[in-house]
Write a structure and sequence with these properties.
Chain lengths: 131, 131
């Protein structure tokens, strides 16, 4: 029996390995970058098990549409929120947070990001492994 | 062996049957309606085989993200475009068009619609069956 959590989704293209601001193996493919009719670009982000992005914040906010696997999204000072396929997350502007896969599962989301991003420090292993 | 084309995607919730402006069995679940940070609402639209929406146009345009199955999108006066999982379509403002499933397959897309929609006449069976 195939274990869906151990294989990544191929709904949208996986794209290239992200070289900055992530820990572990993560991949990004922009799927929509036209200037109209949306106020946002759309990227497909694929995290291998254990991969996550650094703490960061968005000038305008961000919406995540989870299309595969299991992951986490944590705002600073709050418990991490468990995410699975079909979940939709509205991350407010200027809120420090991170997102990424669980230790055991791939995690795939579309990220709709209408503004710029401020990248901050990594999520430390000792914080992450407690989840 | 499961035939993916004969079963609908359950990535996002299927929602309720659409009662107006569609032919055949189609379902809509809004998945994002917050006023910020996007300029658009997002709906998950699921078409049973043979289902399609009426001809229509969008005041501001629309973006489709195909998440399952096989379908068609046709602008008036142009050949119908075949669509499959992973395709992204940018429908310009005020362009008369329709979209829907193929005769044999379910079809599922996220629809990002930043403005209002003008609904027009149905896509006739004699046009559709030629595809």
């Amino acid at each position: 029996m195939k274990n869906e959590h151990l294989s990544h989704s191929t709904l949208f293209p996986m794209g290239q390995k992200v070289e900055k601001n992530f820990i572990g193996d993560a991949y990004l493919q922009m799927v929509f970058t036209d200037p109209a009719p949306l106020n946002t670009a759309i990227g497909n982000v694929t995290f291998a098990p254990g991969a996550r992005n650094n703490w960061h914040s968005h000038y305008t906010g961000q919406v995540l549409l989870v299309t595969g696997g299991e992951g986490w999204c944590q705002e600073e000072g709050k418990p991490a929120q468990s995410l699975k396929t079909g979940d939709v997350v509205n991350i407010p502007a200027n809120v420090k947070h991170w997102h990424g896969a669980t230790k055991e599962s791939w995690f795939v989301h579309l990220a709709l990001t209408p503004g710029q991003t401020d990248w901050l420090e990594p999520v430390l292993d000792e914080e992450y492994i407690k989840l």
